[in-house]
Design a protein that fits this description.
Blueprint: H1 28-39, E1 44-48, E2 57-63, E3 66-72, E4 78-82, E5 97-99, E6 104-105, E7 112-113, E8 119-121, E9 142-146, E10 149-153, H2 162-165, H3 167-176, E11 182-183, E12 189-193, H4 197-204, H5 210-213, H6 215-221, E13 226-229, E14 234-240, H7 249-257, E15 271-277, E16 281-286, E17 289-299, E18 302-311, H8 317-347, H9 363-375, H10 390-399
Antiparallel strand pairs: 1-10, 2-3, 2-5, 3-4, 6-7, 7-8, 9-10, 11-18, 12-18, 13-14, 14-15, 15-16, 16-17, 17-18
Helix pairs in contact: 4-8, 6-7, 7-8
Amino acid sequence: MTELPYDTIPVPNDWNRGGLPAWTYHSPALFDLERDRLFLTHWQVVGHVGDIPAAGDWLAFDLLGERAVVMRGQDGVVRAFHNLCRHRGARVVDGAKGHCKGSIVCPFHGWVYNLDGSLRGAARPSSFGELKREEFGLKPIEMEIFHGFIFLRFKDGPQPAVAELLAPYAEDFAAYGMDKLMPVRNLDWTSELPVNWKSVRDVDNEGYHVALAHPSLQELYGRTYRDLHLDKGLSVSIGWFDEGMARGWSVRNYVKISPPRPELPAHLQKAWTYYGLFPNAVFAVTPEGAQFYQEIPIGPGRTRLAGRMYRWPNESRETRLARYLAFRIDRFTSAEDQQLSIWSNESMKSEAFEGFHLSDLEYGLRRHHDGLRRLMPVMTLPEEPAGKPLPRANEDLICQPSNSL
């Protein structure tokens, strides 16, 4: 068995195999609570510094009514701001990514901002009376960079600084050289599903379904696959491949072509590794490249899946071809997971649904649910509370001394 450099949490001998109650997957009131207590207060992945290599390059990120823009300044520094003009609140940039040459110009009335977010000037400034420019720069958003990846959060929250939170991943990310990743052009992807975001994460948080639901992955790494549970909402899933198990065209050719990476530590050679971050992000790394993907909630029953793919610099022809084959395998896997998410979410509204009964191989799903319950103990209730607003019911449970979640 390959030795892994992670302090893992073993599956208990006796644990509660139930999941979240069905009402938590379709309650508008709970969705609003998740917005305020979970998504806006936890680190979200926006992209990689390789996405914005030049001064004026920017990435946009929208989440549940909040809008961010991450931009590289003339001084080379990457900063995050609310994508909101200080005059009337218009978006100062529009789209997913782009470039501002020298300044940011609001398309509504022409207020001009420097690339560091400071206000350069308002259109027709005399019409505003006394306007102190230093008080009207773009509002900053908390942002950190970890091995090239850009994280932000809209409000202060329970997670520590990114470097501390993701410290268990630092050794692997450094070995891969993640800070040197380069974006793969035209391979950003999005997909919208008619499901609650938790149904997507439930599927992705366990490997019990891999053997039957993902024939390509089963051929790729078979019984070598394992899910590892770490602390602070982190998880690692990993599988190793060799030519002996490959039958399908994509997998068979991938394992033949994938170039060796002798500079990597033993546990990362011929490995596909998935690094999870609570509540909704995953970094997926293969010898040929990397991607991150996440669930962006839109409504109680609507979720956007989004991902961005990267390559290593100076890749060879063989590496590029192997990366294409890995993309084909991953594309099939994603489509299979999306269908499973739809089926799982549908069940939550059936009167016949009596809850989950989880395998030891699905302990990662339970740990994710426990993380949600700690923040929102109202999720421990079998039915949606009646008679008082849900946020109030949640606060009452938080204040109970007996609450151990």
